[in-house]
């Protein structure tokens, strides 16, 4: 391999590394493009996940039992509660899935209600199970504390914290005092993200402030017994390993329970981390990829929540953008090749000042490379845009044999004298000489310097990276489609078993 080929290979490898780095930065910037706080994005955009309520009965229902089932259906149909209801008649030979679910109800007697967490979280525990009655159904659908938390979240509360007491007064009071202290501190110190890249609604929205509330909940509360069970069963070890510890649950968005802080885990560090996540920028806008479990809340969130931030995305840049850049690179390379051929075709006995001018071109381009990239300089010609411009003007390559004039100030009579040429050769300021260069020669020299000996290498690299970007986009799109297809298939299967 010759030294020229080695230089071409090194230049191509450097270009590949640089473009790959830029592509990675672009992908990372796209992944973190959402600057809206997590709690605000969750409140305005994330639909609540539906609980599955299964009513097992054998044969007909009494009037009171039918009223209870009608109340469940009414809540579901009017979207005043995030639940879907299914009735299963055990005397009617239900499918294998429902038979298995019935067998899992230890000591149950129909009519019986079993409440399951939303399928998207795949939590194996039951949220609650008990006899079918009007009182149980009303307690399941609504409670005073859930109404209060929902009202706080609709009112733009950052998060509502629930302290589920253990029954040990010393532990519970210590946990409550620490939570109060840290939440007040975080309200003063946390800084919300700046909503850059969002539409005019964001500018018109009221300034958001960090606000936390704390609610103490006894495990023996009769009015909140359904909420107590929903909290305790949200993780598989809360009722076993940590049954005697106080638990703190941050709730944000549309009643989304982040996770449980338990016992010694209720400390300054964990409280701060939870609060920072809730108030930080929403790096992942897909709800299923974020932690949390929805509460069962009787509220039509879409009717109560006002949209205050609309994301303003730039136009998509796909294969067309890469192809345009590749075509532009090839055109510039063709112009540089033609300029080199034209220079080679120039007779050796040309203008006497040509060697000195060529030296000054190299000196000027070297100085430009040390200060500012030549590609960022504006063309000095006032007649038409440069050949590489995409705004208009001629895209023809420069003239094959442009006239080259010696450097230096022009003679008064409009003619170049030998003294003026000699004076131009000895001048020390490259800017003055650069201003007298014939425009086509200067642009051709810059193009030749930029392209070097790489004949089409840069264009091939850009084309290859275009294919890589298209493949990556296809993989991401396929993943999203597959996830949605699985969710639809699960829902369809659930409907067919009804």
Descriptive overview:
This protein is globular. The chain is built from 17 helices and ten strands. The chain has a domain at 38-308. It has 498 residues and is α+β, with helices and mostly antiparallel strands. The strands form two sheets. Strands 5, 6, 7, 8, 9 and 10 form a six-stranded mixed β-sheet that branches. Helix 1 (3-31) packs parallel to helix 17, helix 3 runs parallel beside helix 5 and helix 12 (319-345) packs across helix 16.
Task: For the structure shown, list the relevant keywords.
6-stranded mixed beta sheet, single chain, 17 helices, alpha+beta, 10 strands, 498 residues
Approximate helicity band: 40-55%
Mean pLDDT, to the nearest integer, reads 73
Q: Strand content of the residues, in percent? A: 5-15%
Structural class: alpha+beta
Span between termini: 73 Å
Written as H for each helix and E for each strand, in order along the chain, the element string is HHEHEHEEHHEHHEHEEEHEHHHHHHH
Tally the helices.
17
By DSSP, the count of extended strands is 10
What is the alpha-carbon Rg in Å?
36 Å
- How would the global form be characterised? globular
Low-confidence sequence ranges: 24-33, 198-205, 312-318, 348-440, 449-455
Oligomer: single chain
The biggest beta sheet reads: 6 strands, mixed
